[in-house]
Design goal:
single chain, mainly alpha
């Protein structure tokens, strides 16, 4: 009977998560419920819960995690001040004359927003609201349009300054700056493979991703150059300044995040888009997302504490040691894990980030799918979203496989 507590707690958390309940509260609620049941059954020492306040304080006072609200605020200001919208429109005009040009523009903007925000929800929502109506208006296939938006929006999971990488760096005990530097290549590789897929599809099926009609490309050379200068260049300079300061070692991620937050406000003022209502909306968005991240960490800490108190770690150990093949299988699994960890914890973090990014796209519970469903017209069925993301899931799995092969070399 004692051996059932661990798997029962694990199953309970999965049921709550798959029911759509927020992950942070699913983990924390499962921990409190099983702590109570364990105390009543005499299987859990309630004194272990005294460790929670100290661990919670450790999360709240973590200097590395202070980068999270800074980067979220930076992205929120760019979104609420409509700078992100202007960026998307400008790149759409630049690429619109080519087949698949709008989709390529979405991928480029998704990459830039990922480098400016690190928040998937903000990127998917913003691009869904702005680009989806344009793509449908110019006869893009709904599945392709939805897939490009969802796939590009999730690039914020891997491209610095990814909030996921900041949390992983803290939990794995590795340098966040090094994670950021290492993640650039896989992130840009993903964006490049997305673009190749769009180009290939537009070539094979021109009707699925047509070029903009001539009447939609009436912007003159000087007018286009002026728009690029004022809408595209400033955000690029801000991103280069923030990430460059991290990569060359001038600033920590937390300091660079503070710099990016101030820089975003300056850009909003320079474009005459700053207002106190915009600032209030950005701060509200930042608060909600930051609280979500912090509560996720607190919930996972509570879950781990109670899980170990109920000997869940022993259950995992027994499960691994009782694998088919006995000791040999155990040795293979352990040595594989040791090999991965022994090579570089940084690359383990990158693999986890790519894997998590794939989970954001995977039906039916991928978070990006929920974000996109919220801004998609009701006339488009959810199955179209699922169909659209399949090619991008395959691309992400190929990149994940490439990362694993690279780490094993």
């Amino acid at each position: 009977m004692q051996q059932l507590w661990g798997p029962a707690m694990f199953l309970g958390a999965l049921i709550l998560i798959f029911s759509g309940y927020p992950v942070a509260f699913a983990l924390a609620g499962t921990a409190l419920l099983f702590a109570l049941l364990g105390v009543m059954a005499g299987q859990f020492d309630w004194h272990l819960l005294f460790a929670m306040p100290e661990r919670t304080f450790g999360i709240m006072s973590n200097y590395t995690l202070l980068a999270v609200p800074f980067f979220i605020f930076m992205g929120a200001v760019l979104e609420k001040s409509r700078l992100a919208e202007q960026l998307l429109e400008t790149i759409g005009v630049l690429f619109g004359r080519f087949r698949g040009g709008i989709a390529l523009g979405v991928i480029v903007v998704g990459t830039l927003l990922a480098a400016a925000t690190g928040v998937v929800g903000a990127s998917v929502t913003a691009m869904g609201l702005i680009s989806l109506p344009i793509m449908l208006r110019y006869n893009y296939g709904s599945a392709l349009s939805l897939g490009v938006i969802a796939g590009s929006g999730t690039l914020g999971q891997i491209i610095p300054p990814s909030i996921v990488l900041i949390v992983l760096g803290d939990q794995l005990g590795v340098s966040v700056a090094r994670l950021f530097t290492t993640a650039v290549v896989p992130g840009l590789l993903l964006a490049g493979m997305y673009a190749l897929y769009v180009v290939g599809l537009a070539t094979a099926r021109p009707g699925a991703a047509p070029a903009l009609p001539p009447e939609a490309r009436t912007m003159g050379g000087w007018q286009l150059a002026r728009r690029v200068l004022f809408s595209l260049v400033p955000p690029l300079l801000l991103i280069a300044m923030v990430l460059g300061s991290i990569f060359v070692g001038i600033a920590t991620p937390t300091e660079a995040g503070a710099l990016g937050a101030v820089g975003a406000v300056i850009l909003a003022c320079a474009n005459r888009q700053f207002s106190f209502s915009m600032l209030d909306a950005a701060m509200n968005s930042t608060t909600r997302l930051t609280v979500m991240v912090v509560f996720l960490l607190i919930g996972s800490t509570a879950f781990a504490l109670v899980f170990r108190g109920l000997n869940g770690d022993l259950w995992i150990e027994q499960t691994v040691t009782n694998l088919p093949g006995g000791g040999w299988t155990f040795l293979v699994v352990v040595n594989t894990i040791v090999t991965l960890l022994g090579i570089d914890l940084t690359w383990l973090g990158i693999m986890l980030a790519v894997n998590l990014q794939t989970s954001f796209l995977t039906p039916p519970f991928g978070f990006s799918l929920f974000y996109l469903r919220g801004v998609t017209p009701p006339t488009i069925p959810t199955t179209q979203i699922y169909r659209g993301v399949i090619p991008f899931i395959i691309i992400q799995l190929l990149v994940l496989l490439g990362v694993i092969v690279y780490v094993q070399q």
